[in-house]
Structure formats: structure tokens, C-alpha cells
Write a structure and sequence with these properties.
The chain is α/β, with parallel strands linked by helices. It has two domains: about 100 residues, Formyl transferase, N-terminal domain (Rossmann fold); about 90 residues, Rossmann fold. Helix content is about 40%, strand content about 20%. The protein is built from seven helices and seven strands. Strand 2, helix 2 and strand 3 form a beta-alpha-beta unit. Helix 1 packs parallel to helix 7 and helix 6 crosses helix 7. The longest helix has 24 residues. The radius of gyration is 16 Å and the shape is globular. The chain starts with a strand and ends with a helix.
């Protein structure tokens, strides 16, 4: 039996991917895993409210709040240790993960990106910017990618991808909605694969 995934979710926004993950866990679709902690750099983030509503410890933690990256990393690592975290899931987390955290959780941090990496990844490629770029370049297929996190943006090994057609009438907004639906399907599935030792 593999050690259960004791997950910390880091997010900056409303938490729709976190909600999809929680729903899958409640339905028994992600065995051998549970979310023990949610952290956001945004004190007003919906993801914190969602965590609290589900009885999950929710913490606001930012570098600005801590005064320096060093103090932030120390506080973050302390929180992760206190909650016995062994796996980190980024769900709309709009900050770069510090190198020390990546080193301590090597191959145990995943992110979801709203495009088919390695295309349309890297600095500045987030949110609407991604979908605008896909449409601007005339790609007929887009999608979402779950990948391991390393020191470079959107660079780590790919865990799971799923594609969606880009129609001629699509706007950045309509494409974003289609891709988000895909994200909600593959993120829980990727975590299940990892929890079962298949990824």
C-alpha cells in the first residue's frame, strides 16, 4: 500500500479546480488521498472560503505579508510540516513557487495549465493571455495539461493532457470556458493516477 497523499492546495482565486478535486474525493474517485491544508496569497480568495466550508484548514500567506521571500518560505515550510503534507497541488496559484519549496517537494508538486504544453507556456502565459494567444496563432486544437512543477514556468514533465477543438467562432472567453471544463475532468484524474502509483 502506497503512503496516502496528504495534500496542500495553493490557490489565488475562486477555487473551481479545488472544488472539482474535492467533489471527486467526496464521490470516492480519488482514494488514498485527502486535502489537509489550503493556502492562498490572496486574503479574499474564494478558495479559502471553500476550504473553511469543508472543514479544511485555510491560511492566508504571502511574501508581502511576511516581509521577505526568506521569511515567507520559512513560514510556508513550517505550515506544510505541521500538517504533515507530502504533496502540493497548485490550483490557480498566481505566484512562482520558491526554489527551496520545489527542492523539498521535488516531483511532488503539480500544476494545471490551460493549454497543451509545451505550446503556450512560460512567463506571461496564464489565464486569458493563453486563450488569446491560441486564437491569435490560429490553432484548431487547445486543451489543458497537468504537469510536475520545477524551477521553470510550465516546464516540468507532463502527467496528463486532454484536448478540445477551437472553433472558428471561439473567443478567448468561450475557449476559456471549454478548457476549464476539461481542467475539472483531468485534474482529479491526474491526482488519482498519482495516488494509485500510476503516474
Amino acid at each position: 500500500m502506497r503512503d496516502p497523499l496528504r495534500i496542500a492546495v495553493l490557490g489565488s482565486g475562486r477555487g473551481s479546480n479545488f472544488h472539482a478535486i474535492l467533489s471527486a474525493m467526496h464521490e470516492g474517485r480519488i482514494p488514498n488521498a485527502d486535502v489537509r491544508l489550503v493556502i492562498s496569497n490572496n486574503s479574499k480568495a474564494g478558495i479559502l472560503e471553500l476550504a473553511s466550508a469543508n472543514g479544511i484548514p485555510a491560511e492566508h500567506l504571502s511574501e508581502k505579508q511576511c516581509g521577505s521571500e526568506e521569511a515567507f518560505v520559512a513560514r510556508l515550510l513550517t505550515l506544510l510540516q505541521r500538517h504533515e503534507i507530502n504533496f502540493i497541488v497548485l490550483a490557480g496559484y498566481m505566484k512562482r513557487v520558491p526554489r527551496r519549496v520545489i527542492e523539498q517537494f521535488r516531483h511532488r508538486i503539480i500544476n494545471i495549465h490551460p493549454a497543451l504544453l509545451p505550446k503556450f507556456g512560460g512567463p506571461g502565459m496564464y489565464g486569458t493571455h493563453v486563450h488569446e494567444a491560441v486564437i491569435r496563432y490560429g490553432d484548431r486544437v487547445s486543451g489543458a495539461t497537468v504537469h510536475l512543477v520545477d524551477e521553470a514556468y510550465d516546464h516540468g514533465a507532463i502527467v496528463l493532457q486532454k484536448s478540445v477543438a477551437v472553433e472558428p467562432h471561439d473567443t478567448a472567453e468561450s475557449l476559456a470556458a471549454k478548457v476549464l471544463k476539461i481542467e475539472h475532468e483531468i485534474y482529479p484524474e491526474a491526482i488519482r493516477m498519482i495516488a494509485e502509483g500510476r503516474a
